Automatic annotation (TrEMBL):
Gene3D superfamilies noted in UniProt: 3.30.390.30, FAD/NAD(P)-binding domain
Protein species of origin: Flavobacterium agricola
Main location: cytoplasm
Enzyme Commission number(s) of this protein: 1.8.1.4
Protein name: Dihydrolipoyl dehydrogenase
Keywords attached to this entry: Cytoplasm, Disulfide bond, FAD, Flavoprotein, NAD, Oxidoreductase, Redox-active center
Coiled-coil residues: none
Bound cofactor: record note: Binds 1 FAD per subunit.
Length: 463
């Protein structure tokens, strides 16, 4: 079979790329070895949000009296039903991608794809049969998986990655989470909300280490308040799984400490899926686990492209989608501008949520900017107080000379739905004064953005 474009992988990079290519008039096929939607829809972004929603509702029920409500009888959870709901949501979303493939007349090839010479893709089917397909353009979007460290080998039962964390057969009484990035803290929050005793071990001085330091400190206070134990400047040197549970030997500034738990979740990052897909044979250049591409995602071998977690840049679903759209639009001959990786929003969906874009205060200072910083706490927000979610704040950073919006950092309820304002404003090169003159609706959480900007310019009203 001959196609205009073949895409390897059907995650949010791959399937979005395939759809946009079809819209542009290309004949498209997509190769997928598991379920449509990839990790994001099946084992990542979507099912984790379903778990976190169950945790949020459970927390609301436990605190119903805070809202003047009375629940008769004991409030409890069915852990297996919570897990099953998450799987049902994932399955539904995967079927949605199947519908989109059909709607856009995209051929689905089920099997393991490998790029070959002469713009060929070799696909090994489930029954072992091998088929070959050719295309004018081949786009690699094979994503990533949980990174496995030598001192933290995953057995899938006592030492697990994020996939197992979503489908544990029973709730652990004690859980150790190694790593405090988005994956680690989201699972820590979920299991803690369900009643598990959770300890986070983080190598860096602050949890969620990529975030602004003020955000990190507020988040650590919130997690500790909810009962999660946190060990920073610490590393798990080895684990022992010979007993009933798992023992983690943790190196700290004060010496070694031994933690015991039923399960240890390794959330120390991801590993790109670039092995055994034909890169070496074709001579496609890689560096440190990533496929090297130009600003339009062309590899060093003409006709072969790569997007998403397999290329340098933020390993985020929305980044992969944007890269894929840009890639095929360039192939189609449209005028496109390279992606601005300095204006990519990052979101963490624990409670409280975290959302950020642009430079942290520390990075802005290191870059030599003279800055204006404004903060507005949700404790001064009428909507947040009424909703019972006064924890957190919005922090904004501006260049004092030209008014450029350098960074925006939020922590609180629903902030992942608010960060897009800052992303769009930065894209449009909006200044702080323009944000102040854009009327924000009252009462809303989004008012905190305007108030934080006002604070940066000495015009804040509600502080």
């Amino acid at each position: 079979m001959k196609y205009d474009i073949i895409v390897l992988g059907s995650g949010p990079g791959g399937y979005v790329t395939a759809i946009r290519a079809s819209q542009l008039g290309f004949k498209v096929a997509i190769v997928e070895k598991e379920n449509l939607g990839g990790i994001c829809l099946n084992w990542g972004c979507i099912p984790t949000k379903a778990l976190l929603k169950s945790a949020q509702v459970f927390d609301y029920l436990k605190h119903a009296s805070d809202y003047g409500l009375t629940i008769t009888g004991e409030v409890d959870k069915d852990f297996n039903a919570v897990i099953q709901r998450s799987r049902n949501v994932a399955e539904s979303m995967s079927k949605g991608v199947q519908f989109l493939m059909s709607k856009n007349k995209i051929d689905i090839i089920n099997g393991f794809g490998k790029v070959k010479a002469n713009k060929t893709v070799e696909v090994t089917l489930a029954d072992g049969k091998v088929e070959n397909y050719t295309a004018d353009h081949i786009i690699i979007a094979t994503g990533a998986r949980s990174r496995e460290l030598p001192n933290l080998p995953q057995d899938g039962k006592k030492v697990i990655g994020y996939r197992q964390a979503m489908t544990l057969p029973e709730q652990p009484k004690k859980l150790i989470v190694v790593g405090s990035g988005a994956i680690g803290v989201e699972f820590a929050h979920f299991y803690n909300s369900m009643g598990t005793d959770v300890t986070i071990v983080e190598f860096m001085p602050n949890i969620v280490p990529v975030e602004d330091e003020d955000i990190s400190k507020q988040f650590e206070r919130s997690l500790k308040k909810s009962g999660i134990k946190i060990m920073t400047n610490s590393s798990v040197e080895k684990v022992d799984t010979t007993g009933e549970g798992v023992k983690a030997y943790v190196k700290t500034a004060k010496g070694e400490e031994v933690l015991e738990a039923d399960v240890l979740l390794s959330a120390v990052g991801i590993k790109s899926n670039i092995e055994n897909i034909g890169l070496e044979e074709l001579g496609i250049a890689t560096d440190r686990d990533k496929i090297l591409v130009d600003k339009y995602y062309q590899t060093n071998v003409p006709g072969y492209y790569a997007i998403g977690d397999v290329v340098p840049g933020q390993a985020l679903a929305h980044v992969a989608s944007a890269e894929g759209i840009l890639c095929v639009e360039k192939i189609a001959g449209l005028h496109v501008e390279p992606l601005d990786y300095g204006n990519i929003p990052g979101c963490t969906y624990a409670t409280p949520e975290i959302a950020s874009v642009g430079l942290t205060e520390k990075k802005a200072v290191e870059a030599g900017y003279d800055i204006k910083v404004g903060k507005f706490p949700f404790s001064a927000s009428g909507k947040a107080k009424a909703a019972g979610t006064p924890d957190g704040f919005v922090k904004v950073i501006f260049d004092a000379k030209y008014g450029e919006w350098l960074g925006c950092h939020m922590i609180g309820a629903g902030v992942t739905d608010m960060i897009a304002e800052a992303v769009v404003a930065r894209k449009l090169e909006t200044t702080g004064h323009e944000i102040l003159k854009a009327v924000h609706p009252h009462p809303t959480m989004s008012e905190a953005v305007m108030e934080a900007v006002a604070a940066a310019y000495g015009e804040v009203i509600h502080l």
